[in-house]
Structures are given as structure tokens and as C-alpha cells.
Amino acid sequence: MVWILFVAGLALLVLGAGWFVESSVAIARMMGVSELVIGLTIVAAGTSMPEVATSIIASIRGERDIAVGNVVGSNNFNILAVLGIAALLVLAARARRVASSERVPVPGRWSRPRARGKRLGRP
């Protein structure tokens, strides 16, 4: 019984978040809001709605520790995940740039190393 309620709640949470984001985007487009503003504000709010709902319900039930832990944990994860992904993307871009300048094989961009028109390697 608990698993059924858990799965149903999770499904309704995902469905509600999707409806919130789609409706907000449609309203913003009708108002003439640019795509950049929609992406930075409305979609960000839609993805944080599950944390808000969890914090509100925990506060109503008197479980303030869960509400505070949810906010702190969510913020920590968001900050560390964004910084980590950004660092990986920067490293990948630099590695690709260095590799392309040295003409070494890189996944997705294979090239044959050559030195002044001659093939490198054993004669």
C-alpha cells in the first residue's frame, strides 16, 4: 500500500511540475517575454517546485528540521552540480583546443599526425 501511494505521489508530482512549466511558458509567450527570460526564470522556478512543496508540507506538519534540511541540501547540490558540470565542460573545451592544435587523435575528431608534410612514425 505504501509503495502504491509513493509511486502515485511521484507520478503526480512529475505531472504537476510539467503542467506548471508548460503553462508558465505558454503564458509568458503570450505576453511577449523573450526565450532567455523564460528559460532563466520560469523553468528554474518549475524545477524547484518539488522542494518548495516538500518544505511547505514539512512546515505544516511541524517538522521544521526536514524543511531546513531540504532547502540547505537542495542549494548545496545545485551549487556543486552546476560548478562541477561547468568545470568539466571548460576542461573538455580546453582539451579539445589543445589536442586540435597539436593534431593528436581526440574522440570525435580523429586526424593523422604529420610533420611538415611527412608522415610520422617508423620508415
What does this structure look like?
With 123 residues, this protein is mainly alpha-helical. The chain has a domain of 73 residues. 76% of the residues lie in helices and 3% in strands. The protein is built from three helices and two strands; from the N terminus they run αααββ. It has a two-stranded antiparallel ribbon with strand order 1-2. A hairpin with a 2-residue loop joins β1 and β2. It is extended and about 55 Å long. 0% of the residues are buried. The mean pLDDT is 78.
- End-to-end distance, in Å? 74 Å
Discrete helix count: 3
Could you spell the SSE succession in H and E letters? Answer: HHHEE
User: Whole-number radius of gyration?
Assistant: 24 Å
Placed side by side, the strands forming the largest sheet appear as 1-2
Mean pLDDT level:
78
Helix content: over 70%
- Shape descriptor reads extended
Secondary-structure content class: mainly alpha
Largest sheet entry: 2 strands, antiparallel
